[in-house]
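User: Need the bound-state model for zinc ion:
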Amino acid sequence: MQASNSFDSSAQVNARSLFLRSFLLFVLAAFAASLCSGAETPTTKIKLDQVGYLPNAPKIALIDASGGRSAAAQSFTLKRTSDSAVVFQGKLSAAVHDPTSGDDIQTADFSAFHKPGQYYIDVPGAGRSWNFSIDPNVYSRAYYLAMRGFYGQRCGTAVDLGPEFPGYTHAACHLKGEFHSSSGKSGERDNVGGWHDAGDYGRYVVNSGITTGSLLWAWELYGPKLKNIKLNIPESGNGTPDILSETRWNLEWMLKMQDDDGGVWFKQTSEHFSGFVMPEDDKLVSEVIGTGSAPYKSTCATADLAAVAAIAARVYKPFDPKFAALNLAAARKAWLWAEKNPNVTFKNPPGISTGEYGDNNCKDERLWAAAELWRTTGDAPYNDFFVKNYAEFDSHLDSPPAEDWHEVAPMGLWSYALANRKGSDAHAVSDIRDRSIATAKRIAERTQADPYRVSLVAKDYVWGSNGVAASYGVQLLVANTLAPDPVFVNAALDNLHYLLGRNTFSLSWVTQLGEHPYRHPHHRPSGADKNAEPWPGLLSGGPNAGRQDALLHAMPPDLPPAKVYADDQGSYASNEICINWQAALVFLLAGGLK
Ligand SMILES: [Zn+2]
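Assistant: Bound-state model below.
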C-alpha cells in the first residue's frame, strides 16, 4: 500500500509539474511565434543567388508577385544579417509575366550597393529572403565544393570527404572488371579508376570526353585563378594544381579504355544499373563494352579521347612531361584509328541497358580532335582536316546551346580560334570569332530581357536543363575570351544566379550550398548512405518538360516547362547529378572567381 500511495502521490506531483511545464512551453512557443511572424522565416517568393554576388557586378533579386499580398509591394530593403540594419532601399519594378514558369516577376536591383558582407532582402508583405553574401571571393566555396564533387565520384578507390563532411565515405569499388563479348575480347580487364558518371556507377568515354575537356579548358582559361586552390584531395601538395590532379584521375581511366590499335571502347558499366547501394556494395561485374562487331570500338569515343588527350598533352607538360607525352601519343594513335574508321557508332548490344549516349554522327568529335591536335602540335594534317571540314559546322555556333556531350563541334571551333597559331587559316579564325561573338551578344540581350534573367528558352527545359544553363554560361565566357565584354560575363553570372537559387523554386541546385538547397538527388551514394543530407557540391539536372520519369509524368499536363521538376530521388529525369553538367558548373564558377 505504502508503495502504492507513494506512487499515487508522486503521480499527482508529476501531473502538476507536467501541466506547468506544458503551460510554460506553450507561453514560450507563442512568444517565439510572435517574434518570428514579422519576417523571420525566409520566403520562397524572393528568389536570389543564395551564395551571393560580386561587389561590382549587377545584383538583382526577383520577387514572385503572382497573386497574394506581395503583388502590391512597391519597394524593398537590403538588410545586414548580423543586426537587421537597413543598408540600402530601392523600388521594385512592375511585375512582368514569365510564360516559361507562369510566374509574375518583379525585380529588386541593388547593384549600386557594393559593400562586402552578409545580407538579406526584405519585401513588405512578402517577407524576407535567404541570407547571401557580397564578396570578391563569393564563389570560392562553391568552386571548392563542386570540384570536390568529382572527388566524391571517384571509382576504384576509397573516398572520404571528412573531417569537413564526416560520414561521407565509400570504400574502394569496382576493382574487378572483364571484357564483354561486344568488345571483341574476352577475359579480365580491370580498368580501375575514372569517375562514376552520374547517379549510377557506369563510366562512359563520350560523356567523360566533354567533362574532362571542359575541366582542362577551365584550367587553360583560368589557370592563374585556379592553381593555388587546394581541394583537399589525396594528391594535394604534390606540386601539380589540384584541379589537374582531380581531372587526371578520370583521364587515366579514359586512356586505359584505348585498345592497342588506337580505338577506344565505348563504356565500362555493368549489364544493367545496380540498386540504390553504396558503390562498394555493387557486386555486378564491371564490363568493357564495345559495338558488338568489328572494329568493336566507337569513333565518337575514340575522337573524344584524341581531343581530350591532345589538350592534356599541353596542359600537363609543365608538371609531368612524361604524362603529357603519353597523352600526345594516345591522341595521335586515336586520331589515326578514327581516320580509318570515320563513323562507327554505338548502340547498346543485346542484354545491356545502361546509358547509351546515342550519337549517329562522330564528325564533330573528329573536328574537335583535329583542332586540339593542331593547337598542341602544329602538324599540318590536323590543320588540313579542320580547314576542309569546319564550314560544315560553323553554323552550329549560331544556334546555342553549343556545348554538349554529343555536340562538340563548338569546342573544336573555339579551340581553333583561341589557338590562332602560325599557319592557321585566317578566314576560319575570323569566321568563328565573328559568329561566336554575335551569338553571345544575342544570348546576353535575351538573358537581360528574360523575367528570370536566365538564357534558357522554353525548348531548353530538357533532360539536364541546368547543364544547358551552365553551358550558356560557358559559351558566354568563351566569347568573353575572344572579345572581352562585361556584358558577356554578367550574362554568364546570370545563369549561375539561376542555378544557385534565382529560379521559380527559390532553390539552390547544388547540394549543401546556400540556405535552401535541393536535398534528394538521384545519386546512389546519397540514397544509400546513413547521412541525412546528400553528398555535397552536386548540381541537379533541373526542370525537364520531356517528363521521362513517372513522377514528372504524373504532374499536371499544363505545367509550364520551368516548373516540371521534383526534388525526389525517384525523378532521374529532373534530379539526377551528372559529371558533364557538373563540369560546366565548375567552368562557370571558375570564371566568377577573383
Ligand atoms: Zn566504382
